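We examine the record.

___
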Amino acid sequence: MSSAIRDVGRTLVNLLRDNLADDNAPGGIRRQQIVLLPPAEAKTGGVRLTLFLYAIAPAAELRNELEVPGGPEGDEAVSEPLDLYFLLTAFAPAEGDDPTERTHDSHLLLGTAMRVFFDNGTLTGSVLQGDLPRDEELRLTLQPMTVEDLTRIWSVFPESVLHASVSYLVTPVRLRSTRTRGGTRVVSRASDVGHVVPTGVEAGLP
């Protein structure tokens, strides 16, 4: 399933929109203000919250899955389990003359978005979007970042001002192959000891 990475992004954005957006509330954040976008591109359209996929890595704890030649059920699809890292960034509202109050608003939004992700640490069932299997479980966890880590990410956008951001890990995201493992696992091995040739003393040699 090559759409897994795309569908995880859809899942996270929809989760935030469903829990934060209120298009009818005066001054409320609107659905289209929560986007999957590099933070440097959030300069127009009144964007208030961005999610940015900044890294993809093999899921270390499941790395051996690809090396298993088969399962007890016979042929089964091969999947590559991945870790996806997202940067969540909040922006101040465009309106307002007091920069401190505007910054307070962005911090409040970031904290509220973090609460949504904390309350939904396991993504499964109808929350999953696109072609993600509804019986699958993805873990959504906050990842510690140092100032150096954050600065390194934002350095990719030299024309942008640093904004309050946090990192999240989604795992395991299974990128399913079109091939199968084939066959079943080896659970026993037969040895033919009838043709063992003795050596040394056992062979009658001095």
About this structure: The chain is about 20% helix and 25% strand. Strands lie at 34-36, 49-58, 77-90, 122-123, 138-143, 165-180.
